[in-house]
Amino acid sequence: MQKVLVNEKGMAWITCNQCKHTSVVDLNGFCEGINVIDHKCSKCEAVSEVTCEFRKSYRKEVSLQGTFIRQQPGEELAGRIEVTDLSRVGIKFRTRVTYDFKPGCILKLTFTLDDRNKTQVNQMTKVKWVEGRMVGGEFVNQDQWSQKQLGFYFMS
Ligand SMILES: [Zn+2]
Q1: Residue 23 CA to ligand 1 centre (angstroms)
Q2: What is the rounded distance in angstroms from the CA atom of residue 5 to the CA atom of residue 48?
């Protein structure tokens, strides 16, 4: 099976087994890690299975303002955050005061990207670690729209 590397922009070059035509494929929206896709050649329309391996998650140091709302467990809790580090799959942020977040708790984060459109992203996030006011989390239940916005953000 053909194996290709996906670059940090979510693009991969795939060569057709049949006609050797190479085309660039947009894999934004796929998961990090390894994905097997059915690639249809844009020239001869032959379909082949291709293993796509994503590079290590691309990250950006940022300074973005936002808010969190704790969804579970317990009572609803909300506050302001500053996002300091962002990737397509996760986030690091600082809270204004120390909260007693436990790893595994789910926060709804809303933050504004510093792109031209000042895109607002709403993203469910699972807390992975807490160090004082710093919190690291991974995105869960990411909708296609948010995936796309973050994809564009990392392309710019
Ligand atoms: Zn082909």
Answers
A1: 9
A2: 16
